[in-house]
Amino acid sequence: MPDLHRGRISGAARRERSMPRSINPQSDITIFSILPQAPLAQQALELIRQAIVTGVLKPQQPLKENEIAIQMGISRQPVREALLILEEEGLVERVPYKGTFVTTFSRQDVEELYSLRIALECFGIELLVPRLDETDLGKLRAIVDRMHQAAREADAPDVSCYDLQFHEYLMARTGHKRLLSTWQDLKSQIRRVVAAGNVLNEDLHRIAENHMPILAALEARDIARAKSLMQQHIFDSGARVIANLERLQRSPADGANGE
Q: For strand 20-21 and strand 92-95, is the pairing parallel, antiparallel, or unpaired?
C-alpha cells in the first residue's frame, strides 16, 4: 500500500476540544461548547477517497484498516467508518472473508455511469441556460482556460479536476437542488473514471478543446445545440474511458501513462 504519511492526521487534529463557553459572560449556564476540529473519520475519508480517485490506490488493491490507521496515526475505528462511506459511494467493495478492496469499474459500470450523466446534464442545460449571466460565463471561461493551461503542462490530474469542475458548475447553476444532489452522489465515481481516462489520454488538449463548443452554445443561449454537444461530449468521453480502462487491464505495467 502506498505510504500515506504525507496525509497524516496531526496530533492537534486528533484532540477534540470540549471546553464549555457561556453566551453571557456573567451567566453560569452553559449552552454551547467549542466545536471540535473535523472528526477523524471525515479526515480519513477525504484522504482515502483522494488516493482512490487520483489513482494512487489502484483497482482491486486491498485496503487494510490496520495499515491505514498506523500510517495516519489514528485508531482503526475512524478508518472503518471511512471505508463504510466509500463502500456506499461505490469506490470500495467488501468481499466476505477476504477484506476490502478498491472497486474495479467494468465496461457496464462506465456505460451506466455515463448514460446517467447524459440524462442529468442534458436536463440540467434546459434549466440553467435561462439563468446564466455574464458572471457565470466568465467563470466557465476561466475554468476552460485553466484546463488548457494544465494540458500545456501535461498535468493530467489538474485537467481532470477542471474538467469535473466545469460540469459541476453547470449542475450547481440549474437551481434544482435534487438534480445537483443526485449528480454529486455520483461525483466520486465520476472523478475516479475521469481520472483513470485522463491519465492515459495522449491528447490532454483535446479534453479542454471539447468544452469550447459547449461553452459557445451556452453563450449563444442555444439550448438544443448545447444539449446535443453535451450528449456527444459525455458519450465520447465514456468511450475513451472504456478504451483506456481496457488498455490498463491488458497492460498493468503501463498504468502510470493513460482519460
A: unpaired
* Residue 100 main-chain phi, psi, to 5 deg: -110, 135
Residue among 200, 184, 61, 50 nearest 121 (CA): 184
Sorted by sequence, the CB contacts under 8 Å of residue 117 that are 6+ apart come out as 167, 183, 186, 190, 234, 238
Per-residue pLDDT 10s for the chain (259 aa) are: 666 655 555 544 444 333 334 334 444 555 554 445 678 899 899 889 888 877 788 888 999 999 999 999 999 999 999 999 988 888 899 999 899 999 888 889 899 999 999 999 999 999 999 999 999 999 999 999 999 999 999 888 788 889 999 999 999 999 999 999 999 988 888 887 776 655 555 678 888 999 999 999 999 999 999 999 999 999 998 888 888 777 766 654 444 333 3
Give the rounded distance of the alpha carbon of 158 from its chain centre: 12
Cα–chain center distance at 258? 18
**Which candidate, 3, 19, 13, 6, places its Cα nearest to that of 74?**
13
In CATH, 107-254 is 1.20.120.530: yes
pTM of the model: 0.69
User: 5-102, which class in CATH?
Assistant: mainly alpha
Cell representation of residue 67: 495499515
Buried b (16+ CB within 10 A) or exposed e, 238-255: bebbbebbeebeeeeeeb
Alpha-carbon distance of 83 to 97, in angstroms, equals 16
